[in-house]
Design goal:
alpha/beta, six-stranded parallel sheet, three-stranded antiparallel sheet, binds adenosine monophosphate
Length: 301
């Protein structure tokens, strides 16, 4: 397994190794790898010849009161797991290499970053500015043919797709389904913050989304369906930061009659963890008997 820590070394490796029409896949992560990350690496391994996994806890996407210091880090374990899943190279730059003191640039996608997790009452748009800045740097350095992201971070996917389109970045964005624990909880590095009681409480996030899904399938009006989901959370002692319905691509509020794919997204604080999850509702699926939840955005493990 090749481990590279400097952008110039990564660029050199890519130009020397990408021969004979070989394709490059990039899987950006913040480490603390779990099955969700590994599913992206495996997909990249299936679809591209050279798979670069980046592991970088990006300080620019954490707010001053967020968990940058506490974020779980285990380089040795991550490198082994990435290798087992098929990665060719792990890129682990140091923050001072990514952001030297002279660093003065930010990449910002407007609009989409100001709602849901980007709302002032949530993480704020600065979070996504940190994400787009680092992802733009990673795409420039690795120059992949394809880059892999998880549907769990649906807003991040919408924002990155917009950045790639707006800035003419020559990469295909591949989005992989959310990988879940057997009880439906979306896998997340932040699940490690939960104690046993909080871990039990956290299953209600999935139950709430399932309840919303069931209501929508049954023809319940959107706001009523979201209200049912909020009640499920409150009954479990969880006050959601948001549980909202948005257009999947523009992230504009979903309006009835529902026509395009709708993102139903939730963020909920549990203990010191802040957990997010979502599913995609396809309005036309309402009349398609037998269409499974998994096909509609995946609420089942
Ligand atoms: P992170 O390390 O949390 O920044 O995540 C790195 C990538 O893994 C992002 O594209 C995430 O959307 C994706 N990811 C995280 N958790 C999951 C999951 N449970 N299922 C699928 N992808 C995931």
């Amino acid at each position: 397994m090749t481990v590279v820590r400097d952008p110039a070394d990564l660029r050199r490796w890519v130009s020397e190794t990408r021969v004979d029409g070989k394709t490059v896949g990039l899987v950006p992560t913040m480490g603390a790898l779990h099955e969700g990350h590994l599913s992206l690496i495996r997909a990249a391994t299936d679809e591209t010849d050279l798979v670069i996994v980046s592991i970088f806890v990006n300080p620019k996407q954490f707010g001053p009161d967020e968990d940058f210091e506490a974020y779980p880090r285990d380089e040795g374990r991550d490198v082994s797991l990435a290798e087992e899943a098929g990665a060719t190279l792990v890129y682990m730059p140091k923050p001072e290499v990514m952001y030297p003191t002279s660093f003065s640039t930010a990449v910002e996608v407007q609009g989409l970053t100001e709602v849901l997790c980007g709302a002032p009452s949530s993480r704020g748009a600065a979070h996504f500015r940190g994400v787009t800045t680092v992802v733009c740097k990673l795409l420039n350095t690795a120059a992949p043919d394809r880059a892999y992201f998880g549907q769990k971070d649906a807003q991040q996917v919408a924002v990155i797709k917009r950045m790639v389109s707006d800035l003419d970045i020559p990469v295909e964005i591949r989005v992989m389904p959310t990988v879940r624990e057997p009880d439906g909880l979306a896998m997340s590095s932040r699940n490690a913050y939960l104690n046993a009681d909080q871990r039990r409480q956290a299953t209600s996030i999935n139950l709430a989304l399932r309840a919303v899904h069931e209501e929508l399938e049954g023809g319940t009006a959107l706001e009523t369906a979201l209200g049912v989901g909020r009640s499920v959370l409150r009954e479990a002692g969880i006050e959601p930061e948001y549980l909202e319905a948005r257009d999947l691509d523009s992230l504009a509020p979903a309006e009835e009659p529902l026509q395009n794919s709708v993102l139903i997204a939730v963020a909920a604080p549990i203990g010191t963890a802040r957990l997010i999850d979502n599913f995609i509702f396809e309005p036309t699926a309402k009349s398609t008997p037998g269409l499974s939840l998994a096909m509609q955005g995946g609420l089942t493990p």
